[in-house]
């Protein structure tokens, strides 16, 4: 399998509870390498643009408010099959359905405050990485 890069966001529910280290350890234990990282506060415009594909969904407004409610840590993760591997480590979107040992099973508070975001496909990963990072910021 090819080496890939994917975008990860550690969400406000997790930064609020000081869980960034525990979450990053899960990525590293799975063989994913953090090749770029920034702790930032998203503006409303940033959050609306990032989650633009969900604009028509009933949860969009609440999701944007949640994502701007505190700091987030945006990261690029690199590794063999990184997109699928990250999704495996995160677990299902709804923590009630997430497998044991996954980030969302262990840490998520709800389907919205679900601790992490990860790109779902190669094209999304490329676009989401570009949203936050310049090529120069990514050091493999
Ligand atoms: P994420 O993987 O970041 O992608 C979209 C986000 O919307 C999702 O995680 C959740 O935080 C949030 N969300 C809230 N309600 C729902 C829902 N019913 N279905 C999917 N995502 C939801």
Keywords:
single chain; 140 residues; alpha+beta; four-stranded antiparallel sheet; 7 helices; 4 strands; 20% strand; globular; binds adenosine-3',5'-cyclic-monophosphate
Task: Characterise this structure.
39% of the residues lie in helices and 20% in strands. It is built from 7 helices and 4 strands. The chain has a 4-stranded antiparallel β-sheet with strand order 2-3-1-4. The longest helix has 11 residues, at 122-132. 33% of the residues are buried. It binds adenosine-3',5'-cyclic-monophosphate. The site of adenosine-3',5'-cyclic-monophosphate (CMP) has 8 residues, from loops.
> Based on DSSP secondary structure assignment, what is the total number of beta strands?
4
List low-confidence stretches: none
| Helix and strand run | EHHEHHEHHEH
Bound compounds, please? adenosine-3',5'-cyclic-monophosphate
Shape: globular
* Estimated radius of gyration: 14 Å
Task: Provide the spatial order of strands within the biggest beta sheet.
Answer: 2-3-1-4
Our count of helices gives: 7
Q: Gap between N and C termini, in Å?
A: 17 Å
Overall structural class, as computed from helix and strand content, comes to alpha+beta
Q: What is the average of the pLDDT values?
A: 98
Helicity, in percent? 25-40%
């Amino acid at each position: 399998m090819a080496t890939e890069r994917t975008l990860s966001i550690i969400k406000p529910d997790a930064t609020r509870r000081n869980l960034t280290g525990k979450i990053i350890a899960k990525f590293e234990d799975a063989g994913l390498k953090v090749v770029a990282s920034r702790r930032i506060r998203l503006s409303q415009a940033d959050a609306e643009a990032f989650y633009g594909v969900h604009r028509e969904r009933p949860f969009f407004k609440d999701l944007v408010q949640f994502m701007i409610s505190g700091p987030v840590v945006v990261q690029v993760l690199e590794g063999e099959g990184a997109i699928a591997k990250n999704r495996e480590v995160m677990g299902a979107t709804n923590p009630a359905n997430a497998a044991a040992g996954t980030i969302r099973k262990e840490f998520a508070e709800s389907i919205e405050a679900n601790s992490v975001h990860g790109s779902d496909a190669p094209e999304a990963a490329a676009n989401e990485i570009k949203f936050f990072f310049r090529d120069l910021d990514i050091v493999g």
